Amino acid sequence: MSLELISWIANQLRLALLEEEEDGTVKGNVHALAPLEGKAPADLFAGVQQLLGDGDAEGAKNALESARQGKSSAFAPRPGVQVLAIPVGTDRAAALIALQESAVAESVQAKAAAADLAAGVSHEVANALSAIVGWAQVARERPDKAPPEEALALIEKSAQVARDATQDLLRMVRHTNHERTRSDLSAVIRDVVRLLRPEAQTKRVTVHAEVEDSCWVEGKRSQLFSIVWNLAHNAVQMVPAGGEVSIHTRARGTLIDLEVRDNGPGMSESQKERAFEPYYTTRSEGTGLGLAIVRGTVESLGGRIRLDTSPGRGAKFRIQLPEAGVKRESETVPKQTRLSRVMKPDQAERAHVLVVEDDEGVRGLISMTLALSNVESTCVGTAAEALASKGPFSAALVDLTLPDERGDVLLGQLRKKGLVTRAAIMSGAPPPADADPDGHPERWLRKPFDPSDLLLIVRELIESGAGTQSAASS
Fold first, then answer.
1. CA separation for the pair 2, 88 (Å, rounded)
2. Beta strands 255-262; 16-20: pairing state
């Protein structure tokens, strides 16, 4: 199975990714090799253990063996760390590792908060990646059960969840306030039920929803998805084969009621009291983060949550959220940008963009996005290739982290050679404190980005460059 999509997500989220090759060697992305001092590990298990340090050796070994046998497996060796073992071929596996990092924390309280935040994001990302892997396998092995169009749509939704989780993290770190938005809880529930289908069918668990149409709630779609997914996914994992999970929602006055029920083993009174504590779990493979995330998200939306459970009688989570009211569809459905209309035809035909990106998946995405708008591009993966390219170029898109040079330093070199004047630096990280003064970009394109955002920045670079040239010629 191709790892292009997983590799792209890993690089955007700065997660370590190690993969077994057919010849037995192991390759890794920059986020895996950097802590390994650039040296590829002798084997996948050794590499995972090096990255985890004192992590769960037995858990890592079992997860990798499961992946080599064709089944994805996730485990959390300690709070704040998630490992997803992914099958990539016959007797081959890959490991995606989300490590908790908190280099900027200056106090015990700050470190604890950063750890919880990083752990929560890695938990949400691991959930999204599990759904992506599951649907990719269904599309490959049972195309009759999942037409490519449906599988790709659901994979895209899961990737958007991972992207939203990381963007939320960046907003929290920057203490940025954003206007609250309205989202349809009913639509979110239907998406969760569809995304859970592969895992539920594997366990022979029935998942169904009873929802009223258009239950609008004040909050982002990613927040509602996190609530419903964590509750429903936990329930699927808890109930035995032949069990049932149901999701219900209805409007009641100024509130929206959401219930997630299961007929699993239930909880004792002591377990119930600790259910929402961070890192508390009754499952060996659990992280103890799902319910804590749910409660925090519900409370942030002005709602409340209650758990009804007892041994042998399953569990029922009841959530009440403030109703947002129904707005006209034209006001609530975001208008998608037509890529072909972002740039003027004559403007696109004259443009030639240099793209410097070491990740093949991201490079291919940028190339295709530009091609769909009839923009010519030269796409390379290293600084050396960029400096050897035949220019000049209308604009450049340069990744900040390249294997042989930092992006801002390369941009300064490209300008000195006369290959490009205007450029954007692409990165999920903030600008470096010691940025090259000759490599200051006109724009900063923060990863992950949408294709329409990419094209808008390219258009701005080209238009401003054309204006500069006209002024110079006159």
1. 7
2. unpaired
For residues 278 and 422, state if they share a domain.
Answer: no
328 is written with which tokens? 């006209």
Q: How many angstroms separate the CA atoms of 194 and 154, rounded?
A: 8
Residues 130 and 193 in one domain: no
Shared domain for 231 and 305, answered yes or no, is: yes
Query: Shortest CA distance to 53 belongs to which of 35, 28, 34?
Result: 35
* Separation between Cα atoms, residue 205 and residue 213, nearest integer Å: 25
| Whether residue 76 is found in the same domain as residue 191 | no
Say whether both 365 and 252 belong to one domain. Answer: no
111 vs 261: which has the higher pLDDT: 261
| Residues 128 and 165 sit within 8 Å (Cβ to Cβ) | yes
Among the residue ranges 120-124, 293-297, 329-333, 441-445, the one predicted with the least confidence is 329-333
Provide the residue range defining the domain that includes 33.
1-178
Instruction: Look over the chain and give the mean of its residue pLDDT values, rounded to a whole number.
Output: 76
Torsion sign (Cα): 366, 367, 372, 376: positive
8 A C-beta contact, residue 234 and residue 295: no
Q: pLDDT at position 469, please? A: 45
320-358 b/e (C-beta count within 10 Å ≥ 16 → b): bbebbeeeeeeeeeeeeeebeebbeeebbeebbbbbbbb
- Contact present, 224 and 185 (Cβ < 8 Å): yes
Do 314 and 367 have their domain in common? no
193 with 168, same domain: the answer is no
What is the per-residue pLDDT across 345-398, written as a single tens digit (0 to 9) for each? 666 677 899 999 987 777 887 887 788 778 899 999 999 999 999 989 999 999
Write the secondary structure of 94-127 as one string of H (helix), E (strand) and C (coil).
EEEEECCCCCCCCCHHHHHHHHHHHHHHHHHHHH
Angle between helices 57-68 and 44-52 (to 10 degrees): 140
pLDDT surpassing 60 at residue 117: no
**Sign of the dihedral defined by the CA atoms of residues 226, 193, 447, 395, in that order:** negative
In-domain check, residue 336: no
| Number of independent structural domains in the chain | 3
Q: Does residue 419 register a pLDDT over 90? A: yes
Say if residue 160's pLDDT is above 60. Answer: yes
pLDDT digits (tens, 9 = 90+) for 220-234: 887 888 888 889 988
